[in-house]
Amino acid sequence: MAEIIDGTAVAAAVRAEVAQDAAAFQREHGRRPALRVVLVGEHAASQSYVRAKARAAGEAGIDAETLARPADLSERDLLALIARLNADDGVDGILVQLPLPDHVDEGAVIRAVDPAKDVDGFHPENVGRLVLGEPTLEPCTPAGIVELLRRTGVETSGAHAVVLGRSNIVGKPLASLLLRRGLDATVTVCHSRTRDLPALARQADVLVAAIGRAGFVTADMVKPGAAVVDVGINRVDDASRERGYRLVGDVDFDAVADVAGAITPVPGGVGPMTIAMLLANTVEAARRRAAV
Ligand SMILES: Nc1nc2c(c(=O)[nH]1)N[C@@H](CN(C=O)c1ccc(C(=O)N[C@@H](CCC(=O)O)C(=O)O)cc1)CN2
Questions:
Q1: What is the ipTM of this complex?
Q2: Domain co-membership, 39 together with 96
Q3: Which pTM was predicted?
């Protein structure tokens, strides 16, 4: 049976460290690091993630405010809001919750955020730095996965890491992080057109599933002893639950746990790390801005 990697516990440790850093920042600069979260529309999951982010930020001593706008907010007005936050010297971090409504060009919004305040690490300038191996604000989910592996002693150096999914939020930046000096993995990124994906997955010492399909990774796709990281958050109807659904990952957890050496659960794995790394990025952005 695999070791279950407790993302909630690791995230709590990261959040406690961030709270200390935020308190030190306040002592040194006479103000708290400030985060502004922009939420457009009423996407239920996004509302819940944004609430969790604001609560966690407040608990860490970060001045957090959510700016909720209606789903019919025009792209022009959203860009104007971002311009206002960019110009506000008291704001250190800006996050626009994704997905955005269809009428808004996500790329234009991401490019509009000042790279120095881009605590999501999605701006092309920050992505470029990440690929080059330069210090930057790193996207929260990939950074959280790397932190989870590091703090639970999963060896990446020389390991074959297979990432399932090539999204801009997870797959691509995670591949860049795992390739970095210090992590030194050999990385394969698989996607919907990959030939014989199960055969590649079976070669993985570290297998990361980020494709958004419930139970996609089955036990026969996992090398015995591998570390399996499940990024998927899929809602499955479940009348026995109060909210009418339960969350499952991209990995068939029970079967894969019999084969893997270590595995992250859903919920309680990567998700809490995403929020913890957002807090860390906010304090980091505040420090960098105060230093220039
Ligand atoms: N601007 C951004 N938008 C989105 C991001 C992002 O990093 N930046 N990532 C995802 C969603 N996400 C953060 O926003 C996120 C997803 C899940 C969790 C989480 O803690 N999940 C819990 C379960 C929560 C529940 O019960 O519903 C878990 O896995 O234990 C946090 C953040 C898309 N959008």
A1: 0.97
A2: yes
A3: 0.97
